[in-house]
Amino acid sequence: MSGIAITLRVLHDGERDLEQDLLAAAARHRTDHEFHHVALDIARWSREHAARLADAGRDHGLDLSGPRGDPLPKALAALREKASEALGRRPESALLLLNDLRDLHLAAARNSLHWEMLAQVAQATRDEPLLTLVADCHPQTLRQLRWTNTMVKILAPQLLSSV
What we know:
Largest sheet: none
Order of helices and strands: HHHHH
Number of strands: 0
Radius of gyration: 17 Å
Strand content: under 5%
CATH topology: Ferritin
């Protein structure tokens, strides 16, 4: 398997994981409406990135189009939703929110580095379709990264000083 194919696979998996992590965090913090809705919106970007990476993978001999299994059984997802409603804005939920933001930030940073590696190899090999893919998707990953960083900056002083 070529280095391009390996990077495509790793980035595809990373985007799918980030989407699922964003959706899970949105469900956990559904009482924080701003966080909930933005997380749902930017999860869509990762879903679109994964689909486009699967298309690009075919050009490099990869099949990345397999269905993603539901990460949580429906009963567990319903339980998590009820727990989110019960916790609301308690101190424990504040720490959980900061923990989720940290994990989301690190996942977006990992994806951003893979997008950068893909951009560099696409330039070196003059792979125009791959360059276009990176130019379209990497800026959204950078926006995901800035959003998590901004949320930490806004929430950390308020939430950590009240715990």
